[in-house]
């Protein structure tokens, strides 16, 4: 599977293009509304056919470009069932598999940041959304976020994957682009080094972060798949 | 060879860590002064031994972190001979080879943005500095930049590499992280699609870009390898 990482400077969001080199069937993970023109042109230049528009969750910090990309380029839009989305083509659940040519994308339900987080797993790599980020994890204080669920997703699902699995997050704020499961098990500031649930929970309860600036616009916008009119 | 891409949001600079998985010998390409703490910690967590600090050129938009990293972590600092650097350990020229374990890093002299641009080539990938960027190339209007040299570097050196060679630039301003030689030959806005030298030169002569904000600080800072004491 070929992987191309794209970045939105305004919201620090990573978008990913995945494609099968033989069939050119492609998936777009977590597109950003303001970057739809860029992504469309790039997808055309690469000669790809969009089969899936995959969302890792209903984002609170930016509006997805998945709906507009679907209109322009086709493809089925995938969000986790718990989102309650009425604009997705597929409401995915843990264990679902999407195929690009002979290559498989597996759905792992990894809630904690929200109740609808998906990690998309391919051979050798996971796209972890806001669940696992480089040395970090998503906040748990809105959108049905939950410390217990996050700790379970990190330590019982993701950290159990092979250590050399590459980790591609939905955001980064320090200039990291990727990590590995082995690194995060050891060095993740919030859940690494066998931190207990109590220690993890204390960290998460004391982040004192302001609400995302665009949450009041982003969440309803994403419930419309980014199709705002 | 393992590759890790790091980003500096303030100057839109990509830093790269390269390492040989067996020996853990590593090279750092184009570090940024303000990111030395981040890079040092990351290198330590990855368990790497810095053997080389590779500069693609004397930058005009940021100050290198190579000197400070050398003090903290060791390694030989490499700049092209044309730079006239007095703080580098190795003044490299075209054809030089640096080894990390059994893996080789080849020096290609690809001037045009400056007179001292190096593309570092490993198996399957090139780190092209400000010579070739995604759909773009470096400006040629200061620091002994030269349209003819840039056109030659792009079309006669880089575009002659295998089309599936991955391209990792020193900067990006649109959220692209990498490309391939095949893509750039076809889609590069300035030199792709068999553009003539005349067309290329007209584009380059009409960019009308302001000088980099930090050029008066960055160039002398980089001539000191970032050791500003």
From TrEMBL, chains A, B:
CDD domains (alphabetical): POD-like_MBL-fold (cd07724)
Pfam annotation, one family: Lactamase_B
Record-linked InterPro entries: Metallo-B-lactamas, Mito_Persulfide_Diox, POD-like_MBL-fold, RibonucZ/Hydroxyglut_hydro
EC supergroup of this enzyme: hydrolase
Metallo-beta-lactamase domain boundaries: 12-171
GO MF, any single term: metal ion binding
Keywords linked to the UniProt accession: Acetylation, Dioxygenase, Hydrolase, Iron, Metal-binding, Oxidoreductase, Transit peptide
Entry-linked Gene3D superfamilies: Ribonuclease Z/Hydroxyacylglutathione hydrolase-like
Cofactor: Fe(2+)
Entry's EC annotation: 3.-.-.-
Regions annotated as coiled coil: none
UniProt GO BP: glutathione metabolic process; hydrogen sulfide metabolic process
Protein family according to the UniProt entry: Belongs to the metallo-beta-lactamase superfamily. Glyoxalase II family.
Name by which UniProt lists this protein: Putative metallo-hydrolase
């Amino acid at each position: 599977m070929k992987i191309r990482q794209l970045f939105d400077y305004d919201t620090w969001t990573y978008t990913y293009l995945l494609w099968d080199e033989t069939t050119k069937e492609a998936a777009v993970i977590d597109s950003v509304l303001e970057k739809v023109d860029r992504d469309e042109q790039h997808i055309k230049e690469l000669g790809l056919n969009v089969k899936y528009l995959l969302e890792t969750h209903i984002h609170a910090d930016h509006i997805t470009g998945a709906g507009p990309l679907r209109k322009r380029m086709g493809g089925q839009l995938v969000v986790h069932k718990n989102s309650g989305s009425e604009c997705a083509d597929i409401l995915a659940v843990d264990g679902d598999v999407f195929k690009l040519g002979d290559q498989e994308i597996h759905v792992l339900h990894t809630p904690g940041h929200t109740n609808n987080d998906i990690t998309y797993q391919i051979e050798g790599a996971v796209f972890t959304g806001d669940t696992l980020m480089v040395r970090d994890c998503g906040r748990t204080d809105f959108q049905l976020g939950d410390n217990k669920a996050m700790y379970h997703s990190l330590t019982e699902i993701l950290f159990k994957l092979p250590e050399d699995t590459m980790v591609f997050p939905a955001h980064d704020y320090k200039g990291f682009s990727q990590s590995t499961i082995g690194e995060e098990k050891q060095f993740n500031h919030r859940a690494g080094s066998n931190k207990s649930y109590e220690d993890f929970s204390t960290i998460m309860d004391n982040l004192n972060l302001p609400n995302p600036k665009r949450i009041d616009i982003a969440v309803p916008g994403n419930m419309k798949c980014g199709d705002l009119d």
